[in-house]
Automatic annotation (TrEMBL):
Protein name: ImmA/IrrE family metallo-endopeptidase
Domain of life: Bacteria
Pfam families in the cross-refs: Peptidase_M78
Residue ranges annotated for the IrrE N-terminal-like domain, each copy included: 40-152
Amino acid sequence: MFTLFTHYQTTPLEQWVEALYEQHEITTPAQLCMTHLAAKLRIWVYTMDMNSMAVENNGQFSINVDRRLSPKEQWEDFLHELCHVLRHSGNQMAMPDRYVNWQEQDASAFQLYAAIPLSMLKKLPLPEHKNEMIAYLSEEFQVTFRLAKARIDQIQRRVLQGILDYEYQQYTQSQVGKYDPSKWSDATRLMMDKLGQLKSKGVLADGDANRIL
């Protein structure tokens, strides 16, 4: 799997998480724990018999982690709530459902990136078989089997998409010069003109045009 990381495409959020860890010199799985990360980010963490949540009081942030959960589940809940502290604002009770859903999706993605960072993952001797890999990462990063599987599934999808994008780019480049615009139909010419107008206005990027075509 390591050799395929060259086709893996990181998202802006993943890059943001990696930069956050680099800024605070978090470079090994052993540093990925609630107490260490909370201390680095100056966030107070406590545990109670209630659902995990982030709390803001006069500009000071704290995170309650449900102590009824297992240690691995507590760590995952902490990361989810940490995203709300670092990236979100406002009271979800007063937000439109669409915005609440976006925040929760963002926190879930952050959780995966922060729990198993790509920069650390690339340094590990990963087993060849998927189930063994998931079990290994579950212990190495102290996360549940469910989260480790979700991260590996995500990476495999990104690798596949990266390969497809690369192959498509190679194909389109090989076709340069083979198209004769003078032979386009009126419908094709009209579509290409519209794409050109969108690109000139900055509405459409080259990559977007390739996907449409």
